[in-house]
Write a structure and sequence with these properties.
The chain has helices spanning 172-175, 248-253, 300-303; strands spanning 5-9, 24-28, 36-38, 44-48, 59-62, 65-70, 75-80, 87-91, 101-105, 108-113, 127-130, 137-139, 150-153, 164-169, 178-183, 189-190, 206-214, 223-228, 242-246, 258-261, 279-283, 292-297, 306-310, 324-327, 338-342, 351-356, 370-374, 382-385, 391-394, 405-409, 418-422. The model is unreliable at 1-19 (pLDDT under 50). It has three domains: 1-66 and 79-86 and 405-426, no CATH class; 92-196, no CATH class; 203-394, 7 Propeller (Methylamine Dehydrogenase, Chain H), CATH 2.130.10.130. It has 426 residues and is mostly beta strands.
């Protein structure tokens, strides 16, 4: 059984034909969809965005709600199926880029404001808002840290009975990056009072992507995944990227429990700067067993992009080879720039959604973008092209950048996943 889809697209001035960098929310009835290609712009218009609201909206589906960050307005919206218009549930300053990153825990948002000022005129220190009640913030302690550029909602990482939040400050320490974890219920705190995860090397962009909701090491607690897309990789070159796995013991020791790299099979040229770790997600690709780790490397193969899928065994070891490679088939398509997983058909296994926002149309129309949906990966191994996907969302129109931002999850309570896409126009 297939389900309704929600689509975000841009608005157009019908009298002049001019397009603007805005977004609109559409609902597409997915019942009856079969494998094939679908235009992401069709459907019932639910919300008509304006240029003043921008189009760089992070999207989260959690608790039966769609959550949208609107940094151009300094707002966070919540939309519930059947409610009509979205409700503004949190506000900050547009100058702080409030809402540029978003996660949800216990039906409350974790909101990144990476341009916020810190104490003592620390411009650009960044901040993260925790929850909707009392104003509680984690605030960057030095200028230009960009704290809150990436945020994630975790389970109980340290066994204290509280859900945790993870957040990154990618400009820390000569662009080494820094990642912090705090309880979602934490009182306000400055980053200088927190212990960062690990000791990343300069210019590694540690924290470019985060995931922290799945038990990967078999210790009955969720583990933290950190992408460092510009780290030195297995080939010894900058920009190959790496992903590290951190349980509570590893965080206490300051050394990861496992490190994953791109390998020669991931791209044509060993040592190519593929930005492995730019996107991360954990997926239940098999009905039982531990979730798979899915890693995007959108600049691999000269920008075509590669997605690597690792199935954790009894333990993760440095140098693990991916079980599955999904390879972009369009020059500069950036396949793997965004990832998502959810069970769309009720078979107990997730489908994997992969965005390729740089993909051009066959006639050369630039950056039309595409979103691919793969099913049945849990029984597979080896390398596959993007065309192996069952579903593809695509429209032959320039600069839509379909697949750049999307979310998957259950919005209508039927235990089947829906899809939200942000399709932007020039």
């Amino acid at each position: 059984m297939l389900v309704p889809l929600l689509i975000l697209t841009a608005c157009e001035n019908e009298s002049s034909g001019a397009t603007y960098p805005a977004a609109a929310l559409y609902r597409v009835d997915g019942v009856g969809l079969v494998d094939g290609e679908y235009d992401p712009r069709s459907g019932e218009l639910l919300v008509d965005g304006s240029p003043e609201q921008g189009h760089e909206w992070p999207l989260v589906i959690e608790g039966g709600n769609l959550w949208v960050g609107v940094p151009e307005r300094g707002e966070v919206w919540r939309w519930t199926s059947g409610s009509g218009s979205p409700t503004t549930v949190a506000t900050g300053q547009p100058s702080e880029a409030f809402g540029a990153a978003l996660a949800v825990a216990n039906e409350e948002p974790i909101v990144g404001a990476p341009a916020a000022g810190g104490g003592d005129d620390a411009a650009g220190a960044g901040a993260v808002l925790l929850g909707l009640g009392d104003v509680r913030r984690v605030v960057g302690s030095r200028p230009q840290l960009g704290l809150g550029s990436v945020v994630a909602a975790c389970g109980d990482l340290d066994g204290d009975g509280q859900a945790d939040a993870a957040m990154s400050a990618p400009l820390t320490g000569a662009l080494a990056g820094a990642v912090y974890t705090v309880p979602v219920s934490s009182p306000s705190v400055v980053s200088a009072d927190l212990t960062p995860v690990g000791s990343p090397a300069a210019r590694s962009a540690f924290g470019a992507a985060l995931a922290c909701s799945a038990d990967l090491l078999g210790d009955s607690a969720p583990d933290l995944l950190v992408g460092a897309r510009y780290a030195v990789g297995a080939g010894g070159a900058d920009g190959e990227g790496a992903v590290t796995v951190w349980d509570a013991a590893a965080r206490a020791a300051g050394a990861p429990a496992a490190t994953l790299f791109a390998h020669e099979a991931d791209d044509d040229d060993a040592g190519e700067p593929g930005a492995f770790g730019s996107a991360l997600v954990t997926c239940q690709l098999r009905p039982t067993g531990r979730p798979a780790i899915v890693v995007g490397a959108p600049t691999a193969r000269e920008g075509a992009g590669v997605v690597s899928i690792f199935f954790p065994g009894e333990e993760l070891a440095t140098g693990n080879l991916p079980t599955i490679l999904l390879v972009g088939e369009a020059d500069e398509g950036r396949f793997g720039a965004a990832l998502g997983c959810a069970d769309r058909d009720g078979d107990g296994s997730d489908e994997l959604f992969v965005g390729a926002p740089g993909e051009n149309a066959p006639d050369g129309t630039p950056e039309a973008g595409a979103l691919y949906a793969f099913t049945g990966l849990g029984a597979s191994s080896g390398a596959f092209g993007a065309s192996a996907a069952g579903l593809r969302f695509f429209a032959d129109r320039g600069y839509l950048r379909t697949g750049e931002r999307f979310a998957v999850g259950d919005l209508d309570g039927d235990a089947l996943a829906e899809v939200v896409l942000l399709v932007r126009q020039r």
